[in-house]
Amino acid sequence: MSIPSQFDAKAAEQKWYDYWMKNNYFHSEPDHRTPYTIVIPPPNVTGVLHMGHMLNNTIQDVLIRRARLKGFNACWVPGTDHASIATEAKVVAKLKAEGINKADLTREEFLKHAWEWTDKYGGVILEQLKKLGASCDWERTKFTMDEDMSASVIRSFVDLYNKGLIYRGYRMVNWDPEAKTTLSDEEVNYEERQGKLYHLKYQIEGSNDFVTIATTRPETILGDTAICINPNDERYSHLKGKKAIVPIANRVIPIIFDEYVDMEFGTGCLKVTPAHDVNDKELGERHNLEIIDIFNDDATLNSFGMHYAGKDRFVVRDEIAKELEAIGSLEKVENHVNKVGTSERTKAVIEPRLSDQWFLKMEELVKPAIKAVLETEEVKLYPKRFDNTYRHWMENIRDWNISRQLWWGQQIPAYYYGEGKEDFVVAENIDEAVKLAQAKTGNTNLAAADLKQDNDALDTWFSSWLWPMAVFGGILEPDNKDFKYYYPTNDLVTGPDILFFWVARMIIAGYEYAGEKPFTNVYLTGLVRDKQRRKMSKSLGNSPDPLDLIDKFGADGVRVGLLLSASAGNDIMFDEELCNQGKAFANKIWNAFRLIKGWEVSEIEQPESSKIAIDWYEAKLQKTLAEIEDNFEKYRISDALMAIYKLVWDDFCSWFLEMIKPGYQQPIDNKTFNKAIEMLEANLKLLHPFMPFLTEEIWQYIAGRTPEEALIIAEWPKIKSYDEKIITDFDFAAEVIAGIRTIRKDKNIAFKEAIDLKVVNAESAATSFDSVIKKLGNVALLEYVTDKVGGALTFRVKSNEYFIPVSGSVNVEEEIAKLTEELNYTKGFLKSVQAKLSNEKFVGSAPEKVVAMERQKEADALAKIATIEQSLAGLK
User: Fold this and answer.
1) SS3 assignment, position 500
2) If residue 589 lies in a helix (H) or strand (E), which one and from where to where?
3) Which residues contact 581 (CB under 8 A, 6 or more apart)?
4) pLDDT in tens, 329-356
5) What pLDDT is recorded for position 679?
6) Pairing of strands 330-343, 351-360
7) Burial of residue 340, with CB atoms counted within 10 A of its CB: 0-12 exposed, 13-18 middle, 19 or more buried
8) Start-end of H helices in 605-652
């Protein structure tokens, strides 16, 4: 079989992915082997592949391919998340473009459009992952809205409700006016923004006196129902029992007194708007204040907004400030920086809003999950520093708002049969709901038509927190074969940004439903940033299309480029040059393979240099394998790759192949050739998890392989004992060879010109690599002597001195003159550096780095002078 001169990444990627799929290598069924299981962090069904997905899924694929090679029954479950807010927003936008308003549709009609959209676009990202080489068990692909997945969510809700852990409450929530739904606290991002502080004057009823109140939101005065003052504030003691008049609204409101108010902050007076601030709501409850909600669900003002009704809150803010100024109620306006809550999904500014919502009590649920990570370490986070983040969130957790005002998602299984707050039942289906309602009311005539299901959907995270269990049917059938075999899973690879949203909640759910952890290790990747450390985004134009990168550099090149700098938890400064480096590495391996296969093989005697080279490389391979295993154990995936990279590029390609390479137009002995192939195959096994396409291509070219012999299911190299001394001896020999090559280069001694080498072996160094030194240095005679050799070029490795007697090709007098000139220049340079360092003023006042640089110059100059003097002594 002829080998192409270049590796064709595109052809190899298509060919071998199809081959792996055809032979069902990715699929797993329970058997006698130990399982190794990963569940994919399900990307949004709306999503397309981005650099974060590339990194995350490459790491997962590395882990799953290595597990497969190590003989585990490897199962990687793929799937997508229905992403309630994001998907519904896209469907609403599509309908709007078609002239259809969501409000004009029934829920069933809307869901039909949502499913059509999902069927059309939902599989895009999973197909893109195949281009990357992701070896997922595609037969097990799940979607969080699959019938069995939704049934698992509903069963979970009913179970938690029956345990008294889910309740309905009228609470202040985070309202997203763009998505028109409530959000949990974790879905709100707080960012500093430049705003204004408005000082407003409220007239005291029945007098001409005023109190001044500072607010960042003047539009909310239309919802004011009190002014609050600290009872210990003597400045305002005369106002007890008085009332104030709200500007513009001209509504009379009470002046109340509560120690909640900070006397030192602002004017010491606080406007109270119970419908639009969580702290104001608590004040309102303590003082039985009226609640006035001035906003519609899209954050425009409602009828309480008077003549501003229908206008957006931010438009009103500017307009009401002008009106307040016109009527003399605006004392002053100051610039003010404050933290503003924004929606994690839509980026809209969050509006605090009172609403009936469903909540899950968290106080008791979190306890086993806290213990698992922070005490018993049944679940380990990598890097460990995230333990502190986990602790802070879990120990300060609040009840989880699990309802969303959306239609796309699992509909809350609460069924109402009356108008009262408690006139509902919770059941898995309508038939069960009817039975419960009949029993609760005593009315056996109640029918399905008399019940109305709650209109809200469940938070998407309430679905995905069951993911590791639900994908194996563990909620609906906890005793089924797959769940008992694959659960708990082994590793989870995800981003630290969803440590709270998803990771912690999965741990909570695992202990609640299965009584054990959902996974053992959590590998938290960093963010992929550009080389200027900026977060990648479409708006900045700094986020490359992953498929374009694969097209340009090959999937293997991109995978290597990403992973070379991807240490756990640390952000990656991505540069396309990294992918180019990965592509160059692929080419290096391909060319090494072509070199080996291009040699003529003969039944001739094995040279001593080849024999020792094989012994050395086998030892080096074993040492690197131990290092790789240690790195994987500690989830240092980048370090594992770098160890393999150095082994293959430096040790195999740059040294081993040079050591065994036959002379020009000469054959290689059969024994060495077979060993070279054996070492190459060992390298391919180590490389396969990182570079699956290239390695399978070379593996199949080496010999005619049956499907049972494919690299993807080959056996990972086993760690054996090795001789550390042979590695140390070679490192010494490599320095000798480097010394010879430096002199050849500096003195223009052509490599084809054989030289003699005489050695004063003061180091008592091993001579086992002498045959290699002779071959790679083109040394005709290597002789150990006791005295220095005159008239020779010389260099030193540790205490050993090496002498190359000069031939007619080197003019000794010219060489002495050249070295003497260089010596004098270096001595002069050293003198100037030492003068600086002896100047106490310079050393005391110059930056530490500058002084360190000068000391390094001194050390380099001293070393160079010693080398030149040594060379001159050898020539005289």
Assistant:
1) helix
2) helix 576-597
3) 557, 560, 561, 564
4) 999 999 988 889 999 878 899 999 988 9
5) 98
6) unpaired
7) middle
8) 608-633, 637-646
Which 3 state secondary structure label does DSSP give 462?
Answer: helix
d(CA 791, CA 756): 13
Beta-bridge partner residues of 56: none
Q: How far apart are CA 750 and CA 741, in angstroms?
A: 10
- Look at residue 836 in the predicted model and tell me its pLDDT: 86
CB 271 within 8 A of CB 277: no
Model pTM?
0.85
**41 cis-preceded (ω within 30 degrees of 0):** no
What's the pLDDT score for residue 382? 94
Catalogue all structural domains in the chain, each as residue range(s) with its CATH number: 144-165+362-400+461-525 (3.40.50.620), 181-351 (3.90.740.10), 414-453 (no CATH), 751-875 (no CATH)
What integer pLDDT is reported at residue 807 of this predicted model?
60
Crossing angle of helices 770-777 and 608-633, rounded to 10°: 100
Token digits of residue 583: 């592509």
Measured in whole angstroms, the distance separating CA 215 from the mean position of its chain's CA atoms is 40
Segments of the chain with pLDDT less than 50 = none
**pLDDT reported for residue 810:** 59
Residue in 491, 495, 580 with CA at minimum distance from that of residue 536? 495
CA dist 798 and 548 (Å) reads 50
**Which secondary structure element, helix H or strand E, spans residue 805, and what is its range?**
strand 800-805
- Which regions of 701-799 does DSSP assign to beta strands (E)? 755-760, 779-785, 792-797
What is the chain's alpha carbon radius of gyration, rounded to the nearest angstrom?
37
d(CA 819, CA 806) in angstroms, rounded, equals: 15
d(CA 403, CA 84): 11
Start-to-end Cα distance in the chain: 59
Output the pLDDT for position 537.
66
